[in-house]
Fold this sequence. Notes:
Distance between the termini: 101 Å
Radius of gyration: 31 Å
Structural class: mainly beta
Oligomer: single chain
Amino acid sequence: MCNVTVTPACASGSASIGWSPANGALSYVVIMEATNGDPLSCMTGSTSCDISALQCGQEYQVFVTAIGNSCNTTRAFDTFWTAPCTPSIISAPLDCITQVAVVTWHQQGEQGVTYMANATNSQGHVVSTCTSDSNNCSLSDLPCGPQYNATVTATAHDCSSAPSPPHVISQDSCTANVTQVDILCQSDSALVMWEASGISEFMATAEDGDGNCLNCSSSNSSCEISNLRCGQLYTFSVAGPHCPPGNTLQKYSESS
């Protein structure tokens, strides 16, 4: 008897073991042993069997023993690795200014493992991916506002774990609510005031009916927009970088 082959089913934690027949064999016993955990076994009259309940991230030794009428035994041997254990995400904060979320997870301590993190939007589409051989990586091009979920998958020895449970990517509030707009007649400008929390830099926008925009920025809770045209109705809004605006407030500039 020779040519033992092991085909692991990575996602289900099981493996199919096959071997060539031994002369005079009536049955076969398969024993699988890992460094940690109790041995697993099966007995069959054929030349294959399936064993389940394998531990993740383990190297198993597989022994196949042929049993005949004379009680003589022939033994064959092979080794294989199960899929890495499923990672667990610790945190995934999103920086609204850089549009980058750094995903961190518990590393299992297994050797030769590569991790892939995905960010999915509310429709379930993957919008960003990164890979790492350590315990973190950076998901890029994620504008603040929409909600994203992160998952991480571990791969080693041509076998991948199940994805980690979805983890909501946290993000600072980057949308501000306009609370007041004071038209400053003498300077053809407007003082825009807002309430916000989270990031420190916001931009106020005044948009006229033709879609022309004027802006000012501040790390405080107000700024002054200059060069307003007389007699125009402006829509005022405030938002952080790469973020959707909050509420809007409309006011006319001073008529000449």
